[in-house]
Design brief:
The complex is a heterodimer of chains A (667) and B (508).
Chain A lengths: L4 H14 L1 H7 L1 H21 L1 H6 L1 E4 L2 E5 L2 E11 L7 E10 L1 H24 L6 H20 L3 H19 L17 H38 L6 H6 L2 H8 L3 H15 L8 H4 L5 H10 L1 H19 L7 H23 L4 H25 L4 H33 L15 H15 L5 H15 L3 H26 L5 H9 L8 H16 L4 H7 L1 H4 L9 H4 L2 H9 L2 H22 L5 H7 L1 H11 L4 H19 L7 H23 L1
Antiparallel strand pairs in A: 1-2, 3-4
Helix pairs in contact in A: 1-3, 1-6, 2-3, 3-5, 3-6, 5-6, 5-13, 5-17, 5-22, 6-7, 7-8, 8-10, 8-11, 11-14, 11-15, 13-17, 14-16, 14-17, 15-16, 15-20, 16-17, 16-19, 16-20, 17-18, 17-19, 17-22, 18-20, 18-22, 20-27, 28-29
Chain B lengths: L7 H23 L6 H25 L6 E4 L10 E4 L1 H24 L6 H20 L3 H19 L6 H32 L4 H10 L4 H19 L6 H9 L2 H26 L2 H4 L2 H19 L5 H20 L4 H32 L10 H4 L1 H15 L5 H13 L6 H28 L16 H18 L2 H15 L1 H7 L3
Antiparallel strand pairs in B: 1-2
The chains are: A mainly alpha (667), B mainly alpha (508).
């Protein structure tokens, strides 16, 4: 690998971010290209670590540093007996070079760089670019430190920083003066700022549970090993800490708390309501943060702790709760979000719900991997592979959607229509994206979905399989509904009005279409790289299997293809695609029936429509809770009367309560 | 031992303050009407720099197993009074001197347009000397002397802008409540004197740890001590003065109050509780835990709807006192260490937040958050640093607030399970609520359209900026590399819990 690659891969974007105000003073073009170069450099460093994983040991400057997984630590805080000359132990922080971290680093940096290049076109003419580049670079740096970290503390730093960047980027257009789409606010700028804050607070709620779990791990390792550690390698080597937690009956609950962090960050039920609002940010932000990278942080964390918990599964059976919760929340979220995606009116909202749903699939795969331990390998590979595949096609879809939004000036799909002639390349690339999302062979989405279905099928988890299958039907439906509404049919009245004003809709500039094209090409090819991926992950996965040998990792390429295309799950997938595609085709592409009439004519469909459109009323419920706490706060503030007599009486009451404590204690 | 040089951290500010008065009054009369703010500020700053030199020297010299005894004229207890300086005392003292130094630099610019600068700096120096005195005290007489001196200085400082009715009213309420608190403490100590026969802390510790007197009287004493010192510490039933005192005091004084004065009350409370009342016998830590939980929760919820920026920060200070108490009440070394670490961190973060808020208020002339919207973009330097201090308070890495929060969570898990999980959950849910109002404040400052009043605000780089830079550097440094600071907190915790060493050092 290149010199100090695991450190520089995240330090460079972060430093370049801080330098954005400086380059801004020099020249706008310098600022733009400098910021992009930060991420491009990260790509170079990330790719340089790949050979090390493939060869099994890390080399830098011609020297061998160690074998994979390679943990590069520095001493951080001293703990233990600080008085005398007894052993001082240290809390360390550092970076880890192992398949998962290098895999994630590459995905994050490559997709980020494509999106940053796209931003040149999309954000052209924006006044606040210094702020934009700062937060984008800072985000990439933070995401990279999140995936490269070798311990929970440094990872949590990255975790919080991506949350901070996400907040600022969602609220990017807080100065917008156009009227707000929602009646609670006056300007759209206020609405955007609110969306950012909502995202931050909702993910913070998940993060505090993660923090408790981290704290518990610290204490448990302190008790078990005499010194606290948060390091992933050490936690998996010595699982005595799980025993400590189990002895207090707390292992299951803390493992679930740990999962609640990913629930927040990856927008799973019940903390999923921030992602649709996050679409208020620029589309590049939505593509980068809310499709390709930040929301994957939760999946990454689950994948990171999966081997640790899997190892503890033999001795401490309570940890199986973790896997069950992960799988079921994943399954339910996938289903929930897909239903909402079917009825969404805004283009980006469809993609947002789709993201929530697809991440649900990843969680489902990872969780199912542990529920039935024999499928650990398939499940792990399925989850991580789908992470990569989804990142590519979702970024593709978002960037394409961005081009459409940019050109048409509206975000509502019913105000679009017939754009396949105006924007031919965007149309073609988005069809590829939608097909990949739907799992149509031979695109990458097919392979990753197949792997998930296979995992569930061979482990005989029928209910979860049913969830996955039904959700897949919905997925195909909403993907092609989206394509149909945007690209087919006649242009809407809104577009006709724009034509008259002279604002002709044409294809986006090359700086925007080329990155989309690259992503489309990647999605065509990525599926076939799956056997390579299994080999790539082998340093992690070899530890899974002592007894059973699974076919996937020993297949060669042709065998792999044959195996994939001739299994029963493939037949089921093809059936799913057909069931989902035909209604979408009829209603939205061929437009032979009117969906509006269909729904309003049938009471049951209408009921479903209203239920799904109102987001299953979950969002409304959360706002009610918020209003309740606000009301409580207003009532509680009255205890601060400002009247001295009352203050002193309160003191006296305090004394009496304290005395009461002792009286009760001594009874 | 007449090694008075150990008392320089008290003597230097006290003497400077007396000299300032003696020389200042005639000078004022001679140079009638001239604005001598920077002159007095400069003298104060120089005096505090000398003081900090001695204080840091002590910090480096002491470790967890040594303390220094200083007695007046070699007359020992129980008749004479003394100071017993161990590393915890020095930590508190250094915080006071450090924050005081930053505040005096800050005030050189901030207090430009006020009157009576002489008295401001005199009182500030007296306050710092008193706080160090409380921290260094080895017996009750000394403690009470300096405690009252601290109280009186802070009462007058709160009332400093005597043309505002709210400042004078807040100071009066603070005075009365403080007086009630002090009297309660006096009552408790009189009981304790009756039982032990001495006012000296080391002797009290020796007596109480060897013979365990009747629990009934002792429980009453503990209640009176917690409640009495609790006024200055601002625990929940006794916190009402803080809410009014902070907004109306000058911002530098709010920083001192929030960052140091309430920590001194906390120090006095826990010092006395830990050395005199063994937890295993008297079980007061559960009471402290209950107090801590209430102290965390109630102000947090009220802070959600505050519009006055300094009032919001005042509620937040009470919440942080709750956090410190919840860690300390666990009684373990790590718990107390994380509590002391948070004392250090909170003093820095809250001090910075108050002085930045002061700069913003100074520019625009209002404390209302609604009116201050968008000011971050007009005053970017102050705005960024203010945002950093708020994010640090919210517990966002890589700032120091995160490290202390992580350690406090770990400390709460050290209570007996399942109480530990329950306490940890409450702590962190409160942390979410706190994050909500800090984030709302950051949003108001940076991400909202500017209001009319804000349109003319502009950044001025002056002494205020210098004080911001010192504190924000500390926030980042401690956040990224807490090594030395946590080590000090850990040593201080060991010193507090190591009662035998406290007793033997007094050569009884």
């Amino acid at each position: 690998m290149l010199y100090y690659a695991p450190w520089l891969v995240w330090l460079i974007p972060t430093i370049f971010a801080v330098l954005a105000p400086v380059t801004n003073k020099i020249h706008p073009k310098v600022r733009d290209y400098f910021a992009i170069s930060g991420v491009v450099l990260a790509v170079i460093f990330a790719i340089s670590m790949v050979p090390d994983i493939l060869q099994g040991y890390v080399t830098m400057n011609g020297q061998v540093l160690g074998s994979i997984p390679f943990d590069w630590e520095i001493k951080w805080i001293p703990l233990g007996d600080l008085n005398g000359d007894a052993q001082i132990d240290y809390l360390t922080v550092g970076v880890l070079v192992d398949p998962l971290s290098v895999f994630m680093a590459n995905i994050v940096s490559i997709i980020s760089s494509l999106i940053m290049i796209y931003s040149l076109g999309y954000m052209k003419g924006e006044p606040d670019m210094r702020r934009y580049w700062f937060w984008m670079d800072f985000f990439v740096g933070s995401m990279l430190v999140l995936v490269m970290a070798d311990n929970f503390i440094l990872m949590f730093y990255g975790w919080e920083m991506v949350g901070l960047s996400s907040w600022n980027l969602i609220s990017f257009w807080f100065k917008a003066k156009t009227p707000s789409p929602v009646p609670d606010f006056t300007t759209e700028g206020e609405y955007n700022a609110h969306c950012g804050l909502k995202a931050f607070i909702m993910t913070t709620l998940g993060d505090v549970f993660l923090l408790i779990a981290i704290g518990a791990i610290g204490i448990a390792t302190w008790i078990a090993m005499g010194v606290p550690t948060f390091n992933f390698i050490r936690l998996s080597e010595n699982t005595g800490w799980m025993g400590v937690l189990a002895s207090y009956g707390l292992l299951s609950i803390f493992s679930v708390f740990l999962f609640l962090g990913p629930v927040g960050k990856s927008a799973q039920f019940p903390l999923h309501e921030w992602l649709p609002e996050a679409m208020a940010g620029p589309t590049t932000v939505s593509a980068l943060i809310h499709a390709a990278t930040m929301v994957k942080a939760g999946v990454y964390l689950v994948a990171r702790v999966l081997p640790i918990f899997y190892k503890g599964l033999d001795t401490y059976s309570q940890v199986s709760t973790f896997f069950t919760v992960v799988a079921w929340i994943g399954a339910f979220t996938a289903f929930l979000a897909a239903t909402q995606g079917m009825v969404a009116k805004e283009l980006k909202k469809v993609l947002a719900y789709s993201t929530i749903s697809q991440i649900g699939y990843m969680m489902l795969a990872l969780g199912a991997a542990g529920i039935v331990p024999s499928v650990i390998l398939e499940g792990y590979t399925a989850g991580t592979f789908h992470l990569a595949v989804h990142a590519v096609f979702k970024a593709l879809l978002f960037l394409g959607a961005g081009a459409v939004l940019h050109e048409t000036g509206t975000k509502y799909m019913h105000e679009m229509g017939g754009l396949k002639n105006n924007m031919p390349w965007t149309y073609r690339f988005m069809i590829v994206g939608a097909a990949s999302l739907s799992g149509i062979p031979p695109l990458a989405g097919f392979f990753s979905k197949e792997l998930i279905f296979t995992t569930l099928w061979i482990s005989q988890q029928w209910i979860l399989f049913a969830f996955a299958a039904i959700t897949a039907i919905f997925t195909v439906f909403y993907s092609f509904r989206m394509i149909g509404l945007v690209f087919f049919g006649k242009p809407s009245e809104y577009l006709e009005a724009r034509e008259h004003e002279g604002k002709h809709v044409h294809e986006a500039p090359p700086v925007m279409t080329i990155p989309v094209g690259i992503l489309a090409a990647m999605t065509l090819v990525l599926g076939f790289l799956e056997p390579l991926l299994s080999e790539f992950f082998s340093p992690i996965t070899y530890r899974f299997h002592q007894e059973t040998i699974v076919a996937v990792e020993t297949l060669d390429f042709v065998e792999y293809l044959v195996h994939t295309f001739t299994s029963i799950t493939t037949l089921i997938s093809l059936g799913i695609i057909a069931i989902g595609f035909i209604p979408a085709y009829v209603l939205y592409i061929k437009r032979s029936k009117d969906p509006v009439a269909l729904v309003s004519g049938n009471a049951l469909l209408r009921g479903f429509y209203i239920f799904f459109y109102n987001r299953w009323y979950i969002d409304a419920f959360y706002y009610k809770i918020a209003a309740g706490i606000y009301g409580l706060s207003q009532k509680l503030r009255r205890i601060q009367t400002g009247v001295l007599n009352i203050n002193v009486i309160a003191m006296l009451l305090g004394f009496i309560v304290f005395l009461l404590y002792f009286i009760l204690l001594n009874l | 031992m007449m090694n008075y040089e150990n008392l320089f951290p008290i003597i230097i500010p006290a003497i400077t303050s007396i000299l300032l008065i003696l020389i200042g009054i005639p000078v004022e009369r001679a140079l009638r009407g001239r604005n001598l703010n920077k002159l007095y500020g400069g003298i104060t700053t120089i005096a505090l720099i000398f003081t900090s030199y001695y204080s840091i020297q002590q910090l480096l010299k002491l470790n967890a197993t040594s303390s220094i005894i200083v007695e007046y004229y070699n007359i020992g207890p129980p008749i004479g009074s003394c100071f017993e300086i161990d590393i915890l005392s020095v930590v508190i003292g250094t915080i006071a001197i450090g924050i005081g130094l930053v505040v005096s630099v800050y005030s050189m610019e901030y207090m430009e347009h006020d009157k009576s600068h002489l008295f401001y700096y005199v009182l500030l120096l007296a306050l710092i000397a008193a706080i160090v005195g409380v921290a260094y005290a080895g017996d009750f007489f000394t403690l009470f002397l300096f405690y009252e001196m601290m109280g009186v200085s802070s009462y007058f400082l709160v009332a400093f802008r005597r043309d505002n009715w709210d400042a004078v009213e807040a100071a009066m309420k603070y005075l009365f409540m403080g007086a009630v608190g002090s009297t309660t403490v006096l009552l408790a100590m009189s009981f304790l004197y009756g039982i032990t026969g001495t006012l000296n802390f080391a002797q009290i510790a020796q007596f109480m740890n060897s013979e365990h007197p009747n629990a009934m009287y002792i429980n009453l004493i503990i209640v009176l001590l917690i409640g009495g010192f609790g006024v200055k510490t601002a625990i929940v039933p006794m916190h009402s003065w803080l809410i009014d005192a902070h907004p109306s005091a000058p911002s530098g004084i709010s920083a001192m109050l929030s960052g140091v004065v309430i920590k001194t009350g906390l120090y006095a409370m826990i010092r006395l509780l830990f050395i005199a009342f063994p937890i295993v016998v008297y079980n007061w830590n559960w009471l402290l835990l209950g107090v801590a939980l209430v102290t965390m929760t109630i102000p947090n919820i009220i802070a959600l709807v505050q519009d006055d920026i300094k009032r919001l920060l005042a509620y937040s200070s009470i919440y942080n006192i709750g956090l410190i108490l919840v860690a300390v009440a666990s009684g373990t070394v790590f718990g107390v260490a994380s509590g002391i670490f948070h004392v250090i961190n909170h003093a820095i973060m809250k001090g910075l937040a108050f002085i930045c808020a002061g700069a913003l208020i100074h520019a625009v002339g209002t404390r209302s958050i609604k009116e201050l919207r968008g000011i971050g973009r007009k005053m970017p330097f102050t705005g960024v640093i203010f945002a950093i201090s708020l994010l640090a308070l919210a517990g966002v890495p890589p700032f120091n607030g995160f490290v202390s929060k992580l350690f406090i969570v770990m400390a709460t898990l050290q209570y007996e399970e399942p109480i530990g999980v329950f306490v940890a959950l409450i702590t962190l849910l409160n942390s979410t609520i706190a994050a909500a109002y800090y984030a709302r404040l950051v949003k108001a400052i940076w991400m909202e359209p500017e209001t009319e009043r804000v349109k003319d605000a502009h950044e001025t780089y002056s002494f205020m900026s210098f004080s911001f830079v010192i504190l924000v550097t500390l926030i980042v440094v401690i956040g990224v590399y807490p090594y030395y600071f946590f080590e000090i907190a850990y040593k201080a915790a060991n010193a507090l819990l190591n009662i035998t060493q406290y007793i033997t050092a007094a050569n009884l």
